[in-house]
Write a structure and sequence with these properties.
The structure holds two protein chains of two kinds.
Chain A lengths: L5 H9 L3 E2 L5 E3 H8 L1 H4 L4 E3 L5 E4 L4 H10 L7 E10 L8 E10 L4 H18 L6 E6 H10 L4 H10 L3 H13 L15 H14 L10 H15 L4 H10 L2 E2 L1 H15 L4 H16 L7 E4 L12 E6 L8 E5 L3 H7 L5 E7 H7 L1
Parallel strand pairs in A: 1-5, 7-9
Antiparallel strand pairs in A: 2-4, 3-4, 5-6, 6-12, 7-10, 8-9, 10-11, 11-12
Helix pairs in contact in A: 1-5, 4-14, 5-13, 7-8, 8-11, 9-10, 12-13
Chain B lengths: L3 E6 L2 H13 L4 E3 L7 E4 L2 E9 L1 H10 L4 E5 H7 L7 E6 L5 E8 L8 H15 L3 E5 L2 H10 L5 E5 L7 H4 L4 E6 L3 H5 L2 E12 L1 E6 L6 H15 L1
Parallel strand pairs in B: 1-4, 1-5, 8-9, 8-10
Antiparallel strand pairs in B: 2-3, 3-4, 5-12, 6-12, 7-10, 7-11
Classes of the chains: A alpha+beta, B alpha/beta.
C-alpha cells in the first residue's frame, strides 16, 4: 500500500524538526543492553564475518539518539524527525514496516515540551486521516513520587518501580509485600548481626568455587543484599493498600489529578512536586486547546523500559487493539548510551502500517 | 509412494535406548548400506525410512515437517521448535534421557534463593556494574520464556557451545541455564539450583510432527509404526 506522506513530512518540517536517516544495521548489543533480552527475540539478527552480532534497527529512537551523541554535545537542543522502515519479528504483522516520528532532545521546559509532543502527534495522525483517536496518558513520575513518600524498604521501591507498567506483576508484588516472607538463613557458622563475618564467609565461598577473581558480584555486594533481604522479608500492610488505591485511579485527567490529591492528603504523601508537574502539563494541554476530557489517564499506565521517566501516551484508532502512536519522555536514555548525565528527551513514533486499519 | 521418515538419535545412550524401544516393539532397525550409514530401514516396512540424527536435529526437523516421527527429548522439542504445540505432539514418554533444565547461580550468592531474588539482582546489575547480568545457556528460547514469565527483563544471554557449567568460573557469564540429572556437575562447579528454578523436567519422548505432510498411504504406515511403538 502506498500512501502520500508529504503532508506528514511538511507538518514535522514546519514544526522545526529536521529529517534524519540513520543506518539500518547496528551492533545488536546496543539494543539488547538498552531494552533487555526480551527485545532480542524481536530483532532481525545477522552475524558479521568477525563474529559481531548485527541487528536491523527495531525503531528509530535509539539510532537517532546515537547519531545525536556522535555529532556534538549531548545536552544541546535538537529536533529530529524520521520516516522509514524498521524491523521487528511480530506474530501477526509483517517484520518490515514503516514508522514515522520525532525526537525532541535537550528542552528543559519539560511540561511545555510534553504538551508540544502530544499536540504534534494529534496533528500527525490527522494528516493520515485519523481525526479523533482515543488517547491514553500516564506518568511514571507520579508513581515514583508515591513510592518515595511511602514508608518502604529501598529494595521494595526498586522492585515496584521495575514492575510499573505490568499490571499483573505489580499486583502480585503488592500481595507479596503485604504478606511478607521468610528471612533468609545465615550460612553455617556465621553469627547473626556480624556483617564482617558474613562478608568473610561469602568471600571464602567465592574463593573456594573459583569465582573470587572473575568480574561480577563480589562478597561485599552479596553480603549487603543478604542483609537487605531480611528487611525485604518484613510484611508491610499499609503501603500496598495505598499503592493499590493509587494505581486504580483512572479517567479524565483533571478528575484523576484531584483524586491523587485527595489520596495524598488522606495518606500524608508528599506528591506536590510530581502533581504540580502533572497539572502544569494539563494546563499546557488546555492552552493548546486540547480537549482534556478526551484524554484517558490511568495511574498504572507506563512503559516497561527503564529509560522512560515521566509522561507517556498512546493513541488508538477506532477499532484497534494495538496502538497507532506510542510516545513519552525518556530522560534516562541518552545517559545510558554515554551522554554522561541525563538529557531531557521526549518523542513519539507512529506505526504507519497500522493506520490503514485505524481510519 | 515416498517413505515416511522417522528420526532416531545417532549417538550415545539415547541411540542405545531408542534402539531398545524399537526392539521391544518388534521392529528391527536395519542399516541401509554401509555399516555407519545415516539412513536405515525397518525390516518388513518398505514405506518407512530411518534418519539417524542428533537429538536437536530431530526436534528441528519435526518442527520443519521434514521428519514425521522421532525420538528426542522434550527439552529439545520446547527449545528448538518455535510455537512447538502447534507443530509437534508428544506421544509417549519413554522413561529415559531424563534431565531437568534449571537456573543455576554461584553457591556463594547466599542472598539469591529464587527467581524473585534474581529479578532484584538483575535490576540492580547495570547501575552497579555498567553492564547487564549475563546468562550462559544452550537453551536460549526456554530461558527467554522462563525469565519473561518471572518478569525478568534486565539480563543478557550469552550463547554457550561447550561446557556451560564452567561459564561463571571462567567469567563468561554470571549464571547459567543448563540441564542436570543429579546436580553433581553443578555442585562441582560451585553452582546451586534456584528453589523455583526448574524450567522443565525432561525425558525422551516419541514425538509426532503436526506439520509433516502425508498422503493416505503414508498416514497408514505412520499409524502402524506408532501403534507398535505405543505397545
Amino acid at each position: 500500500m502506498t500512501r502520500d506522506y508529504a503532508p506528514l513530512r511538511a507538518l514535522f518540517t514546519d514544526a522545526g524538526y529536521a529529517f534524519v536517516e540513520p543506518p539500518l544495521l547496528f551492533d545488536a548489543s546496543v539494543f539488547v543492553e538498552l531494552a533487555g533480552e526480551d527485545l532480542r527475540r524481536r530483532l532481525f539478527l545477522s552475524t558479521a564475518a568477525d563474529g559481531t552480532e548485527l541487528a536491523l534497527r527495531p525503531d528509530y529512537t535509539i539510532p537517532v539518539c546515537l547519531q545525536h551523541l556522535a555529532s556534538g554535545k549531548a545536552r544541546r537542543r535538537a529536533n529530529y524527525a524520521y520516516l522509514g522502515p524498521v524491523f521487528r519479528q511480530r506474530r501477526d504483522e509483517p517484520g518490515e514496516f514503516l514508522q514515522a516520528g520525532v525526537e525532541s532532545l535537550g528542552r528543559t521546559d519539560r511540561a511545555l515540551a510534553d504538551a508540544d509532543m502530544l499536540k504534534l502527534a494529534l496533528s500527525a495522525v490527522a494528516t493520515l486521516g485519523v481525526a479523533a483517536p482515543a488517547v491514553r496518558i500516564g506518568d511514571s513520575a507520579l508513581f515514583a513520587a508515591v513510592l518515595q513518600s511511602l514508608d518502604l524498604a529501598e529494595p521494595w521501591r526498586r522492585r515496584l518501580a521495575r514492575a510499573f507498567g505490568d499490571r499483573d506483576r505489580l499486583k502480585a508484588l503488592l500481595a507479596r509485600l503485604a504478606s511478607g516472607a521468610k528471612a533468609p538463613a545465615l550460612p553455617d557458622g556465621v553469627p547473626a548481626g556480624k556483617p564482617a563475618a558474613l562478608r568473610r564467609a561469602v568471600s571464602d565461598m567465592l574463593l573456594a568455587t573459583g569465582l573470587a577473581t572473575v568480574g561480577g558480584r563480589d562478597a561485599g555486594e552479596i553480603a549487603a543484599r543478604f542483609a537487605e533481604k531480611a528487611e525485604l522479608a518484613r510484611g508491610n500492610r499499609h503501603a500496598p493498600k495505598v499503592l493499590t488505591k493509587f494505581l486504580a485511579i483512572a479517567g479524565a485527567p483533571r478528575r484523576a489529578a484531584a483524586a491523587v490529591r485527595r489520596l495524598a492528603a488522606a495518606e500524608k504523601l508528599d506528591l506536590d512536586a510530581a502533581l504540580g508537574d502533572f497539572e502544569t502539563r494539563l494546563d499546557n494541554f488546555a492552552r493548546d486547546r486540547l480537549d482534556l476530557s478526551k484524554l484517558a489517564f490511568a495511574a498504572d499506565f507506563g512503559r516497561r523500559l527503564d529509560y522512560y521517566t515521566g509522561f507517556v501516551f498512546e493513541m488508538y484508532g477506532r477499532e484497534d487493539k494495538k496502538p497507532i502512536v506510542g510516545g513519552g519522555r525518556y530522560d534516562r536514555l541518552l545517559s545510558l548510551i554515554g551522554a554522561g548525565g541525563p538529557v531531557p528527551a521526549v518523542g513519539f513514533a507512529i506505526w504507519l502500517d497500522r493506520i490503514g486499519a485505524a481510519r | 509412494m515416498s517413505a515416511i521418515v522417522i528420526g532416531v538419535p545417532s549417538k550415545g545412550r539415547l541411540q542405545e535406548e531408542s534402539a531398545a524401544v524399537f526392539a521391544r516393539a518388534g521392529l528391527n532397525l536395519e542399516s541401509a548400506g554401509a555399516a555407519r550409514s545415516y539412513r536405515g530401514r525397518i525390516a518388513g516396512m518398505p514405506g518407512v525410512e530411518i534418519a539417524y540424527l542428533s537429538a536437536p536435529e530431530i526436534a528441528r526437523e519435526i518442527g520443519a515437517g521434514a521428519v514425521h516421527l522421532g525420538i528426542t527429548g522434550r527439552d529439545q522439542v520446547e527449545e528448538s521448535i518455535p510455537d512447538w504445540k502447534s507443530r509437534a505432539e508428544l506421544l509417549v514418554p519413554l522413561g529415559f534421557g531424563r534431565c531437568d533444565v534449571v537456573v543455576a547461580v554461584p553457591r556463594a550468592w547466599i542472598d539469591v534463593e529464587g527467581m524473585e531474588d534474581l529479578d532484584d539482582v538483575a535490576g540492580d546489575f547495570r547501575p552497579r556494574h555498567g553492564r547487564r547480568l549475563t546468562v550462559a545457556t544452550k537453551y536460549v528460547n526456554l530461558t527467554r520464556r522462563f525469565f519473561a514469565g518471572h518478569g525478568i527483563a534486565d539480563y543478557r544471554i550469552v550463547e554457550s557451545l561447550g561446557a556451560t557449567e564452567g561459564a561463571p568460573a571462567s567469567g563468561a557469564a554470571d549464571l547459567i541455564v543448563d540441564i542436570t540429572t543429579t546436580g553433581e556437575t553443578l555442585r562441582a562447579n560451585g553452582l546451586k539450583v534456584l528453589a523455583d528454578g526448574v524450567i522443565l523436567r525432561s525425558e525422551a519422548h516419541l514425538v509426532r510432527s503436526l506439520v509433516a505432510k502425508t498422503d493416505t498411504k503414508q498416514a497408514k504406515a505412520l499409524e502402524a509404526v506408532v501403534a507398535r511403538l505405543r505397545g
